[in-house]
Write a structure and sequence with these properties.
Elements lengths: L14 H12 L3 E8 L3 H16 L5 E8 L2 E3 L2 E2 L5 H8 L4 H5 L4 H9 L7 E2 L2 H30 L18 H20 L4 H24 L9 H18 L15 H22 L3 H13 L2 E6 L2 E6 L1
Parallel strand pairs: 1-2, 3-5
Antiparallel strand pairs: 3-4, 6-7
Helix pairs in contact: 1-2, 5-6, 6-8, 6-9, 7-8, 7-9, 8-9, 10-11
Length: 317
């Protein structure tokens, strides 16, 4: 093959020198980040450093930080172009186009970021479904914050049925914003520690859980709108969206009703089916007080039941 004379004998081009040449041409003598798979640490990246710094005569030149990612595996096999057909035979999905035909891009992004970039990632459809479930929960909290802001702004509140003391404020919004500030601080600390997106996302889930609990207390009437500072709710929303922006989700807000139902939603569906069947049995037996009690208790819990010619239907308030 081709070679060039040097004081040390004939030198032949190779991929180590190719990468150094491209880096120095397009990025210059010193640049911030150089990435690659963990299998390239030695000898490839070691060679790049040695030859680039030798050529430049500066041991502080070339890349300042190195990021080495773990492998994506499918069925315990490394995903690569060379074994694409084997992977397809095992799991069905392989290309980005095939995956995005079934799952939103933000769901795929969430799946990837839930594993630290230096760790191996087992990629299969089961994990994509889990990521879609997680995404639905995060989107639900986003929707709940918007709904809280809307209800508070409109001055709406749950009516007192006389069965509960709605004057008691169980969870002040001030506590929610303090928790949000704490979780945001933890979120940034995780992202600043070797880009630990997996840990950072757990703090976003913690905040989503707090929002969900607060929304439930509000809808049930345990918290009155008059006791809530709307600016605080908006601050919690800002904190939540600050996390989302860094993770790269909700860039195009997805209405919660368009997100695939989470496992919690499926459980609610199953329970509501049983409850409505019991209510229908009470109505058939002309036990109107029992049927009305079920309807009223569900309303207190944030669920409205409507009787139609086709049967009872329900929706969340």
């Amino acid at each position: 093959g081709p070679s060039w004379e040097s004081p040390w004998g004939k030198g032949r081009p190779g991929w180590h020198i190719e990468c150094s040449a491209m880096s120095l041409k397009y990025l210059g003598a010193k640049f911030d980040f150089h990435g690659g798979g963990s299998d390239l640490i030695f000898p490839h990246h070691e060679n790049e450093i040695a030859q680039s710094q030798a050529a430049l005569g500066d041991e502080n030149s070339f890349a300042q930080y190195w990021l080495h990612n773990g492998f994506i595996t499918i069925g315990n096999e490394k995903a690569s172009k060379s074994n694409k057909e084997m992977v397809r035979a095992k799991k069905g999905l392989f290309t980005v186009e095939e995956i995005l035909a079934k799952y939103p891009g933000e769901v795929v992004r969430l799946l990837l970021l839930q594993t630290h970039y230096r760790s191996p990632l087992e990629f299969d459809e089961e994990r994509l479904k889990e990521a879609q479930d997680y995404y639905g929960k995060l989107a639900k909290a986003y929707w709940q914050l918007d709904e809280l802001a809307r209800l508070i702004h409109a001055g709406e509140f749950i009516k007192d049925t006389g069965e509960k003391n709605f004057a008691i404020t169980v969870s002040p919004a001030g506590g929610l914003v303090e928790e949000g500030e704490r979780l945001l601080s933890n979120f940034y600390a995780a992202m600043s520690d070797d880009f630990n997106s997996a840990l950072a996302i757990t703090y976003m889930f913690e905040l989503a859980k707090e929002i969900n609990g607060y929304y439930g207390e509000f809808i049930s009437g345990k918290i009155l709108p008059v006791t809530i500072d709307g600016d605080i709710i908006l601050r919690v929303r800002d904190i939540y969206l600050e996390m989302a922006e860094i993770i790269g989700i909700f860039e195009q807000p997805v209405p919660v009703e368009k997100v695939e139902k989470t496992s919690d939603d499926s459980l609610v569906d199953s329970l509501m089916k049983i409850i409505l069947e019991l209510r229908q049995e009470a109505r058939a037996a002309k036990n109107w007080s029992a049927a009305d009690k079920i309807r009223d208790e569900l309303k207190v819990a944030g669920i409205v039941v409507e009787d139609t010619p086709q049967g009872a239907v329900w929706k969340k308030i």
